[in-house]
Fold these 3 entries.
Entry 1:
Amino acid sequence: MINYRFFYFLFIAIFLFSCSDPDENEEVKKPGINKSANLKGLGDSASELLSDNKFTSMNIEIVYVNGYAPSEKTLTNFKKFLEARTYKPDGITISLRAVNSSGKSPFDIEEIAEIENETRTVYNAGDEIAVYIYVTDGRSEKDKENEFTLGSAFRNTSMVIFGETIEKFAERPNAPSKSDIEAAVFNHEFGHLFGLVDIGTEPQSDHLDKDNAGHCNIEGCLMEASIEFGSGIIDEIEGGRVPKLDELCIRDLQAAGGR
C-alpha cells in the first residue's frame, strides 16, 4: 500500500525549504560574516573607531558611482585626518570601487541604506573595524532652496557623500576646489562617526550648537553645521585651507580614546 501521508509530509518539507528566506540561505553560505556590529546607531562605535582597545586597524570601503570618484588629494587629506585622531597601530586601509548609478536620486536615508546593503562588502572582522562610504551621483531629498546636504553619517560605520551636490558647489563663482570641499565633507562626516558633537562621545565642555544638533558652535571648527549643509562652506574654506577640529572637539575625542 502506498503511504500517502509520507508523501504529503515530504512535499510540505520540500516546499518550506524552497520558500525559505534567500538572505538566510546566503548567511549559511557565509558563516563568517556578522553584519550586526556595523548596523548600529550613529556614534555607537565612536570609541572603537578612535582607540586600539578592541580594533587595532581600520578598513574603509569607498563605493562611488562612476564619474564621482574622490580625488587623490581628498583621500590623502582624509587619511591624514584619521591618522591624527585615532590609535590604529596596524594601519588604516582605504579601498575604492566603482558602481553603476542606482537612478534613485533624490535620495532619502532609507534608500541609501538599501544601496549599502546591496554594495557593502567589508564588515568588522577580528581586530579590524570596517567603515562604508557611498559617494552618490545625486542629491539629498532634504535639499532646500538655500540649504543643501553635502554628506550624512547615518549608522555607526556608514556615511554618504552627495557627489553631485559637491560638484555643483565647486562650479560656483569664487568657490573652493572640488577636492577641498570633498575633504572637508569627508572629514566632517567622519567626525560624526567619532561621536561629535554629543552623538555618542560625551562633550568635555559646552560647545554644542543648540540650533543644529550634533554640531559645534565654535567658529571655524570642522564640525560647524555649515560644512555639512553647504550654506557657508564657500566662506569656511579659504585659500585651500580645509577646516580643522577645534581644541574642544579634540578634547572630546581624546576622552573617548582618541588622539
Entry 2:
Amino acid sequence: MAALVEDLNAVPGVVSVLSTIFERLAERNDAAVERHAHDLAPRHRASAFHGLTKPSISVRSYLERIFRYAHCSPSCFVVAYIYLDRFVRRHPAVSLDSLNVHRFLITGVLTAVKFLDDIYYNNAYFAKVGGISLMEMNYLEIDFLFGLGFELNVTPVTFGYYCSILQREMYLESSPDPSLSRLQCCLTSTDEESSSCQQKQLAV
C-alpha cells in the first residue's frame, strides 16, 4: 500500500491509477454501446446509476474531487475498487460507461468509507461532493448494497491482492516500453476472489 501513497498532501497514486483504469474502461464500453446501438436490452442493475448525459467532469477530476473533499483514507479507494469488481461480477449484464461510472464511483467510495473509516461525512455531504441530490445518493447506496448482496467484508489477503494489482498497473503505466504502457488489469482468481477477464468486468 505504501507505494500507492506518495505524499499525504498530494493525490495518492491509487487515485491516479484508478482514474486511468475507469477512464479506459468507460471509453471501451462506450465504443461497445455505439457498435450495438440497436440492442435495446435492459441495463439491469446499472439502471439506477444510468445518467441521461455524460458528466462534464472527467473521471480523473471526479475521483480527485472525492479525495480532496471526502477526506477519506486512500485505503477506501482500494476497497471501493473491490466492491465495484464484486458488483460487476455479480451482474454480468452491467457495463460501466460514461453515463454511469461517476455514480458508481461516488457510491463505491461512500460504501467503502462507512465500512473502513471510523470517522466520515454523512450522505448529504457525499451527495454534494458527487454533484447529486441526497435522495439520489441514498437510493444509489441502497441499490449498491443489494447489488453486492451486502458482501462488504474485505480480508487482509484480498486487500493485499488488489493493492498488488494496482501497483502493477502503476508500474506498467510508467514503463518506457510502449508495448507495456497500457493497463493490463485482468483480475485473476484467488482463494477468496474469483473473476475472469471479460469486457464488462473491471478488466482493462
Entry 3:
Amino acid sequence: MALRFEILKQDGAARLGRLYTPHGVVDTPVFMPVGTQGTVKAMTPEELRALGAQMILANTYHLYLRPGTEIIREAGGLHRFMHWDGPILTDSGGYQVFSLAPLRRLTAEGVIFRSHLDGSEHLFTPEKVVALQEALGSDIAMVLDECPPYPASREEVTAAVARTTAWAERSLAAQSAAQALFGIVQGGVYRDLREQSARELVALDFPGYAIGGLSVGEPKELMYQVLDWTVPLLPPEKPRYLMGVGHPDDIIEAVARGVDMFDCVLPTRLGRHGGALTPFGRLNIRNACYARDFGPLVPGCDCYACQNYSRAYLHHLVRAGEILGLRLLTTHNLHFLLKLTAEIRAAIARGELGLLRARWRERCGGNRTVLEAEGDT
C-alpha cells in the first residue's frame, strides 16, 4: 500500500491524523516546506528535521527542466539526490505551466509550453507527468490539472473542470508504480462547478484529494466559503490537501474546516525579502526602526535566530545583503509555521481548537494590516 491514513481524533470538523508513507509517518495537520528545485531554499535537510519538518514538496516542472528527471533517476531517485529520507510530495507542475499563459497552448494530448529557462518547447500530458513523478520516486504525486486564474469567467472555469476530470482519469490509467496519486478539485469560485469537480473526482477513488485554484488572488473570505462548499464533499477517510496556502490564519481556518495538509513558499520567500512571521502579522526587518533594536526578532520565540540574534543585527545583515540574514529569517519563519501546526495538532487532541482559533483572531486582528503592509513581498 503506497499510502494509509488514519484519523486519531476529531474536534468539530478538524482532524488529528496520521499519514503512513513509504518514507515515514506524518502527523497531520501538517505544513510542508516547499523545495521547488529539490531544495528548501537556504536550508539543509538536517536543519529542516531539527525544525520539525516531516514532509517536503518538490516541483515536477522545475526538476524536469533542470537537472532533468533522468539524472535524478540515475542518482537513485529524488530522496537520495537531495539527501532527504522523509516523505516527499511532488506537484505536477501544472500550475507553473498554466501560469506561463503567453508561452503555452492546449492540445487534445495535453499542454505544450516553452521553458522559462531557454525557450525550448515541451509537451506535458497526464501520462507523461505521472511517468516523470514515478521517475522522481516521490511518495505522493499530483495529477496534471488546469488551474484557472482569478478572476476567470464561468466558461473558462467550466472548461478547466472538464479538462481536469478527463486528465485525472488518464492519470490513473497511466500509473505503473506504487505511488499515491491525488486528484485535484478545481472549479474556481463557482459553487456548482466546485461540487461537480469534487463529485467527479471522488467517483474515481483517489487515495487522497487536493483543493486547487485557491490563494490565487481571491479575498480570504471567499476562499473560506469555497472550502465550506468543497471539503464536506471529500471522503472523510482520506487526506485532504489545500494547495499553496501558508498564511497562519488561513491554516487555522482551513484546519477548522477539515483540511489536513498544506504547503506554501511564504516562509522562505518572506525570509529572502527581509520579512518575519510573528503572532501579530508580518515584520519587515529592513525598516530603519530596527537599526538600534537589540531585542530578539520575536520575543518569546525559541527558534535559533530569536534565541541568539537581535533585530539590530538582523537589520544590519539584511541591509548589507549578507546571506546569513536571509538564512536566519528563513529559519525563523519555517520554525514559526511548523510550531504553529504542532500547536494545532495538540489543540485538536485536547478538543480545544476553537480556543486556539479565537486567541489567534484576537491577537492578530488589530495589528495584522499594519505589519503586513510593512513586510509584504
